[in-house]
Sequence to fold (235 residues):
Amino acid sequence: MKIAGNILKSTRDLLVSSAKIGVSTKDLDEIARNYILSQNATPSFLNYDGFPASICTSINEVIIHGIPNSKDILKSGDILSIDIGVCYKGYHADSAITVPIGKVSDELLKLLEVTEKSLLEGIKQAKPGNYIGDISKAVEDTIKPYGYGIIEEYGGHGIGKNLHEDPHISNFYYGLRGALLKPGMVICIEPMVALGKKEIFEKRNEWIVKTKDKKPCAHFEHMIAITKDGNEILT
Fold:
């Protein structure tokens, strides 16, 4: 899983440097797929429950599961969430980042800053003896003062031989401690935070999930190993 995480990290760096004005999301998908395959790994998302691409590319109001295509051309002022999965010798890694394209408003830059900070605060609580609920509370407490919408229908998860495993990790605290964190567990923490309200719009039998009010949304994710001394970020 460390190797998978390192391959993912390199893929993410490559995509961030490639995500520029005039580039299509299909271009980014091809870059990711070719690089992952060159590392003797495979894209975890490709054909996962029928998903047709190697990465998810979600622009502005698209929260998650954006499908790369040649018509989605990046333009100045966009924010692009890139979600990546890598499988190496049967073990998965998963991570996401939201990047500004060209000149982005201060309002959106603040959204990205707060969302990433909420991820890092959640990671601080990912240590032996704590509970999943401690992570959820730290994420929510970081976001709440800004009045942003915390997406409730999706969240983090366990990971290993399967891309998505128990436990589910909410980005808000709903009063339950959840699973006890122990050394050896590997989890993904992934806050999704909307500039507007938390309500989502999801067409039946379609992948793409958007904010209902069409306000932009940020998404950051890391894969974390719980160690005896705390944790290690693997992506």
Notes: The chain has one domain: 2-233. The two ends are 10 Å apart (CA to CA). Helices lie at 2-18, 25-38, 106-124, 132-143. The domain at 2-233 is CATH 3.90.230.10 (Creatine Amidinohydrolase).
